């Protein structure tokens, strides 16, 4: 026919078993409706009317939220890129890729970890002259700069080593850790590079420990003089250095060109809000546009090292596909964690989200941008709307980039010119943070930015390679995990209230299924109220001996039993199917409860305080280090609670309350000698609910009263929670 046959660069497959799922989910829906009908038709005339209405509201919410969740399971799709076709078709006409690594605090994000991430992304299997790596240091730390300087030297040996032996992963520290389990390649070279790494590691760690760069290095490199005029982390000039660049003839030990490597600490002034990571990213977008201007941007957190050297090529298959590529704004990979235990005590792996829900989001063309492990098209990130003109002629973009390079005379000149782009005043009276770049004012800048991009007509893609693309660190204490979830749920809820709300703004701009899916995430915080209600009121009424649910002989018992059992079994099976364990699921259930009753509640309250102008939201950076004994307990799956805080006190109080109610009820039974059979007959659901809550809380009771190690709950929490729970029980019994 004269027309060349077209081979797509990626393939999309639909998930199986949809019909079965729809039938099952419809049956649950009928069950949920029956529960509503029961609640409405049996509202007591006087006593307990409001308690009953409260339950109705909770059940309405649970039903509605369950309905939102369905959208994420209706239409899962799976993606498969074909990187060999990419190489065949484009040869070495591949686009430039700019990689942004963000770090913000050398104390809780150790510089050695940061440079391991940097080294891993410098070592991608990709033409080095097209790769530029930028480190944004919001901590403005000379130690981090020193570490990067060390990394730039080590890279000259590390990159050839990676390529010669095709090793994975390419983060040196992660690679050396795997050696215990895999046979070595060339032992001599390996030993040499390992020794070199260890030397560097000890230099960097020493500097971190002392908080000071070695004297001789300081005097040898003039760059450090910039820290001379530096007053504080929150008040300093822009510090920008190009450590490796073609113009400087930066080559590795084999004589190959090195990737460009840039250090940036954007200007910070107390009178300008720095907008956390979003601000850092926007500075990087501008600065990199001057230095390398790659069409594709990869964004990773400083703890998310590349675990797969092929990721860039995989991602490009999506963007560069001739038929569908031009609609795609970003390609998100799942957050994987290096330190997750098999049974994942803090639910940090987000297993179901990344192994089920994101495929569902992809079915609607809109996976979330989750801030790390995400490839973007630069023009879209800069605010471009989708139109037919957005098609990139990939075969011709390179020339344009090279032109761009020739314009500047020297590297110094390039540095000076780029610096101005990272100043505080640069964004004044511009649409940066509003229409361009990452959006400001939301602590999940990633999700809101992703949503705003989808609203401009673009699509996003979720790609989950067999060998995880990136691995990071998940919190190792319960409190940290709760604080992280608080930040997330607070940010998600800010989106509902923001200009870009999926409820009204997105209406008509994205598909209804996608709107529902975003709402499912954005409305996390609201779950706190019905969950608190459900975990307090039925227990207290159990203590009083007043039934709130149909008794076992009533036909209304059936929908309750069906919905509870059906949904639990479904969730369990789903969890097992994606590689979880039964114990992991039980832990997940615990975290589900704890997140809802603490993180989400505090997130909601803080949001309201913000709406009424009483406070500003803050971005609390998660710690990426753990003391030796803390990580040991984490490995053993023993919960590390953390300091005494209102969040933990609340959880402990709820746990004690349920224990008192259950035990109190049983004691009453024994003392009063009522026939227990009737009680279990009339109040089975309430007994079960309290019983399950007590079972879930066993680690809390242990942490309060039985454990002796440092990871236990603080004494003060034990006293406060017991007193509070006891008073509530006594008061409630007395009043009723
Ligand atoms: O003022 C700041 C604060 C944070 N960061 C960086 O942002 C990243 C994420 O911070 P972290 O404390 O690790 O938060 P996580 O909860 O693990 O991060 C998830 O959630 C964030 C939104 O809440 C996203 O920004 C992240 O990309 C996403 O991985 C880290 O690299 C930080 O160095 C900055 O650059 N500047
Ligand atoms: Mn993180």
From TrEMBL:
Record InterPro entries: Cellulose_synth, Nucleotide-diphossugar_trans
Binding site for Mn(2+): 277, 301
Localization (cell): Golgi apparatus membrane
Keyword Transferase: yes
The enzyme's E.C. designation: 2.4.1.12
Family the UniProt entry places it in: Belongs to the glycosyltransferase 2 family. Plant cellulose synthase-like E subfamily.
The protein's name: Cellulose synthase E1-like protein
Native source organism of the sequence: Medicago truncatula
Encoding gene, per UniProt annotation: 11440534
